[in-house]
Fold ABC transporter ATP-binding protein.
Amino acid sequence: MSPILSVRDLEKTYEGGFQALKSVSLDISQGEVFALLGPNGAGKTTLISTICGLVQPTGGSIQVGGHDAIREYRAARQLIGLVPQEMPTAPFEIVGDTVAMSRGLFGLKRDPALIERILKDLTLWDKKDNPIMALSGGMKRRLLVAKALAHEPKILFLDEPTAGVDVELRHDMWRIVGELKEKGVTIILTTHYIEEAEQMAERVGVINKGEIILVEEKQELMRKLGRKLLKLSLSEPLDAIPEELKGYELVLEDDGTSLTYTYDTHAERTGITSLLTDLASAGVRFQDLQTDQSSLEDIFVGLVRENRDQA
Ligand SMILES: Nc1ncnc2c1ncn2[C@@H]1O[C@H](COP(=O)(O)OP(=O)(O)OP(=O)(O)O)[C@@H](O)[C@H]1O
């Protein structure tokens, strides 16, 4: 099946020369939930804004549902709903009106029944006659989702949907995403949190400094994130791994002075206890041991640390 969204070699250099996107390529299938994970300033908002036509790219191309996002802007934009990080609307606007107006902006016929359903789904129906300023922060977040859905988009972008929200609203957002997915809406969300990507997404892309450095199926990513290394410094160097330890897929390193075992922290059994017993019966002694995170976790922790250091 051809992707509903296809981004090719996308570049964005802001006025002043800062390159926020460096040749980003990405394909998203219809109906999938994709999380774009990355630290502050990685380029997540720039990427979304460029796809939604709010920011002009300086290179590359974007196809949305087969439409070129620049040459066929209106057709492409019609398919997209965008939930921004913050409420850009006027505080005096009435909740029900502002959602209906969002639909009108796309030149679509009024559909009060649809607006009612959207407001009810987002538990905003009893606030429909209130001005936006009378809503709590959490309700404003829900209203942003309602406005983005009013023209029945096929692709919904959620920019940091749970940044700064309480636990209850975070779970609500996860539920809303699940329900939209059931209806066949393609969802792309940005987040800082591995946990959030794990909860919601089927596929995860990691972006850093304007480059997508990894795209993985969530299951595969979590498997890698869950991997750890156990490194044993041996008392006496080994020429080879003893036959009875072959099942552990150990790696002999550092001129035979260290053995490394990879295990899965999510597994019911890590295999460490039996490894240590089998090492003893094979007569392999060690003087020290240390554990290490898997390389993927290193990447992400490294990204976040780098970002914090720069802040
Ligand atoms: N209008 C602009 N002019 C110049 N530089 C900009 C502009 N908008 C964003 N940038 C820069 O581009 C980089 C990427 O910003 P962007 O907002 O896309 O990151 P992000 O991953 O969404 O971060 P956050 O998680 O903080 O929202 C940042 O270094 C930012 O300062």
About this structure: The first strand starts at residue 5 and ends at 13.
